[in-house]
Design a protein that fits this description.
284 residues; mainly alpha; 2 domains; 14 helices; globular
Length: 284
């Protein structure tokens, strides 16, 4: 087996840099994969390109890989659906009513309540990290903007609740993947082993705990403190020149004319997805 050393770092590094610079994730991944095969092919561009195409074909030959890709591709469709059906608007209207009630009662905890609610929904959508973070961003971006909470805080809450919850609640693709690895190691009861190991999975537990502490204590540090200060003093929700990874077309889709905003149009699809994910993982 060839030892490519530091060259093995170049493909993922290229993909990450291109994704951050261009916001074109799929193209960046393809170029990163192509560079990897180019290195393996001794820098022969023809062989590297042919190997890349063959690699794509091999991926789709595996039914499990194809299902995973289709599932990920449908994430955007689901987000557009719950916006188009008025589900997101209904949810936001409900949050607005709650905030207005709190303001009238002079409770003064609206920021904390909204941030905790974003954390809770991020944890409950444990079936897939991208679904969790994108849904939290879609639902709470208008509410956070109204309360003058910087986008950095929303991104922190969404990201720090999505992956940790998927790890701690293994009824998802991640749990199935880990159990598959345990089976290959000869472990006869992979699910019981995985559940037993959860008590030692300190990173996701500490991550969620840290988010909770930051929200409740209202104490921010480093760049987050500077972001809060910027928004408080200038009203800017983003830094000058900031380029969000997710475009407004995905998270700001207009509701269909003639429909009445209803939060249930969002709750039912998301709840169905979570329940069916658990059911089919157990069934299959």
């Amino acid at each position: 087996m060839n030892d490519f050393g530091v060259l093995s770092v170049l493909p993922p590094l290229l993909a990450i840099i291109l994704a951050l610079r261009t916001k074109q994730v799929y193209i960046s991944l393809v170029l990163g994969i192509w560079l990897g095969w180019l290195i393996i092919s001794d820098w022969n561009p023809v062989q590297g390109t042919l190997a890349t195409l063959e690699g794509f074909v091999e991926v789709f030959k595996n039914p499990s890989n194809t299902r995973t890709i289709m599932f990920s591709a449908l994430v955007g469709a689901l987000l557009i659906f719950i916006q188009y059906s008025g589900g997101v608007r209904g949810f936001i209207n409900g949050i607005d009513k709650m905030l207005n009630s709190m303001e009238q009662k002079k409770i003064g905890k609206s920021r904390v309540v909204v941030e905790l609610l974003a954390l809770l929904i991020g944890i409950l959508l444990f079936i897939e990290t991208s679904i969790s973070s994108l849904t939290v961003g879609t639902l709470f971006r208008p509410v956070f903007d109204r309360l003058k909470i910087p986008r950095e805080k929303l991104a922190y809450i969404a990201d720090s609740s999505s992956a940790p919850s998927s790890i701690l609640i293994p009824f998802n693709a991640w749990g199935a993947f880990i159990m598959g690895l345990l089976l290959t190691q000869g472990i006869e009861a992979p699910f019981r082993t995985l559940i037993s190991a959860m008590a030692y999975n300190f990173y996701p537990m500490l991550t969620i705990l840290m988010v909770f502490i930051v929200i409740v204590s209202r104490k921010d540090f480093g760049p987050m403190a500077r972001a809060e200060k910027r928004t408080r003093e200038t009203g800017k929700l983003l830094n000058d020149g900031a380029r969000p990874l997710v475009s407004d077309e995905v998270t700001s889709y207009e509701m269909k004319e003639g429909l009445r905003p209803r939060a249930m149009n969002m709750v039912i699809p998301l709840l169905t997805m979570v329940v069916m994910m658990i059911f089919f993982l157990a069934y299959t």
